[in-house]
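Consider the record:
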Amino acid sequence: MKLVIVESPTKAKTLQKFLGSDYKIASSYGHLRDLPKSKLGIDIENNFEPQYIIMVKAKKNLKELKALVEKADEVLLATDPDREGEAISWHLLAALELEKKKIPFKRVTFHEITKEAIQHAIENPEKLDLNLVNAQQARRVLDRLVGYKLSPFLWKKIVKGLSAGRVQSVAVRFIVEKEEEIRKFNPEEYWTIKVLLEKEKKEFEATLIKRGTESIKKLDVKSKEESDKILKDLEGAKYIVEKVEEKETKKSPLPPFTTSSLQQTSWNRFKYSAKRTMSLAQNLYERGFITYHRSDSLNLSTLSLGLAENFILSTYGDKYWSGNKFYKSKGNAQEAHEAIRPTDPKRTPESLQDALEGPYLKIYELIWSRFLASQMNPAIFNQISADIKANEFTFRANGKTTKFDGYLRVYQTKTEEVELPSLIEKDLLNLVKLNPEQSFTNPPARFNEASLIKILEENGIGRPSTYAAIITTIQLRNYVEKDDQKRFIPTEMGEIVNKLLVTHFQNIVDPTFTAGLEESLDAVAEGKESWKEVIKNFYEPFEENLKNKEKEIEKKIVAPETTDKKCPKCGSDIVIKLGRFGKFYACTNFPKCKHTENLKDESAFKIPCPNCKKGNIVKKKSKKGRVFYGCDNYPECKTALWDEPTDKKCEVCGSIIVKTKKGLEKCSNKDCGKE
C-alpha cells in the first residue's frame, strides 16, 4: 500500500477518486509542527535555530499518521506546490521519522487535481526543495522575532495585550497615512456646465470644454457667479455642430487571474473579503475545478491553451479566438506555476449549477470567464466625438457603441454605451436645457480590501498568499476597522501604535525596507542567499535599536485622563484608560479595586436594556475583535446581542427587535423566534 499525505480532507477525498485501491490518502490537517506559543522558540545564540514542537491539536492526527506509515510500502508527500506546502512536507518528514525509520518516500507536486496531473506527478517524483523550506522558515522566524520581541515593548509603553507584526504594521501605516490625508483635505468648489440638446427627437448631453481658444478644465469654473456669467453669455445662442470625429477603438482582455487580481476583483464584484475569496478558491482547487489558487504567475500551459482554443472555436466561432496569447508576469513570479484557471473549460458555470453552491459558483465563473477572455479577440467600439459651437463657447458630446463584443462575450467589464443621433457638421440643434452642476472635490478614498491589496502589491509588501492573513490580523488586533462603506479606518489604538513605530522603529514600518526583506526571502527560495544570514542581518540592528529605545522611552506614552467620577465600589477616583479595544473607565485603586465601566458612546444606540432596565445597549467588541451589542451596565447586566438592535419591541414577548446582516428583522429572544 502506498500512503499519500495531503493537507486537507477535501483534497484527500478528491485524490481518492483518481487513485485506485493501491493508494491510501490521508490528511495532515495543515502543519503538524510549529514554534511554541509559550516562548520565543528560537535559539538566537545558536544561529537562530528554530525549536519546533508538535502542536497540541496535531498530536492525535500524528499518532494516526504514524500507524498508517507503519503499514505503507512507500509514502508520497503531496502537499501544495509552494513554500508553505514544501515546509509542511518537510515537517511531516521529521515528525513521521521517515528517514530515521528508512521508510521510502517521495515528494510529488501538481498544480491541478486532475487524473492526468496526478498520474504525471506520481510518475515524475521530485526531491524536497530545501530552498523553499528555508524561505518559509526564514519568514516564520522573522515574524516571530518581531512579534515576540517588539510586542512586550508595546505592553510597557502603551498597554498590555498589543502585538506588532513585521508586515501587518506597514499595512496599518498605509491606512493611518491615508486617514491623515483625508483630515488635511480641503474641498474645492467647482461647476460643470452641461447642456441637453436634441436632434430628430433624440436627446443627448454635451459638456462645456472651451471658451474661444482657451480650454475649460474640470476645476476652472470655481463659483456660482462664474457659472451664472457663462449662462448669461449663452442666452439666445444657437447650438451648431462644428466638428464630428469618428474612430474605431479596441479594448483588449485582461490576463488570467493571479491570487492578487482574483482577490481584488472578487472584492469589487461581490464584496468578498480576501480571506473568504481564498477559502472559496481553495475549496474549488481541492475539488479539482481550478488550478492552484496561490500563484503570482501569468503563465499558461500548452495544454490549457489548447483547451481554450478548442472551446472558443467550437462555442463562439473563429472570429472570437485570438490565437495563443501569452502574458508576462511581473517581478519574481515563478513561471513554473500557472495563472489561476479552470482545469477544464468545458465545465461551464451553467453545467455546474447543481455541483457548486452560490459563492463557489460565483468565484468559479469569475475564474472561468477571465481565463477564456484572455484568449479571445479584443472588443471593438465605434467612438464618436462631436464639438458643438454656441456663441464663443464649445461643448463636446461623446458617444460609444459596440461593433464587436469580442472577449466581452464571456467576461463583462464596465463599458457604458452612449448612442448619439446622426450628427453632421453645421447641423442646428435644439436646446432642451442648460444644466449647471455644483460639485466639490472629494478627499482621497479610504482603502477597501481591493485597493489595500493593490498598494501592498505595488510596494512589494508581503506576497499574494499572505494578503488575506494581513488584512484579517490588523482587524483582529483592533488597529483598523471598517466604516459603513466597508473601507478601512484606523482606530485610536492603531494610530498610537503606528506613531510609536514610525518614530522609533522606522525599518519595521518602512515599505522599502520591508520590500527588500521580501526580495531576500525570494533569493533564499532561489538558493541565492542563506536564510540564517538574512535573519542575522535583520535581527542584530533591530535588537540594538530595541535596547536603546527601552532606555530612551521611560514612561508610558498614553497617560490616563482624569474625570470627576467616583468609583461606586470603593469611592476612589475614576480615570479614562486606553485599552486594547479602546477607552474605558477604570478605578485608580487598581489592583485592589478592579472596577471598570464602558465609556458611553454618544453615538451609541439609545435603547434601554430590556433586562436590567438601568443601562443602554451599546456597540462593543469581543476579545477577538468581533462587534456585538451589549448593556453598558456590565458586569451587573450581561445582556449581549450579535445582531444590530432597533428601537422596536417584539409584539409577542416585548424583547428588542434586531436587524440581521441580510436586513431581516427578528426578535432577539431565541425562545420567541418571531420574524
Notes: Residues 604-675 form one domain.
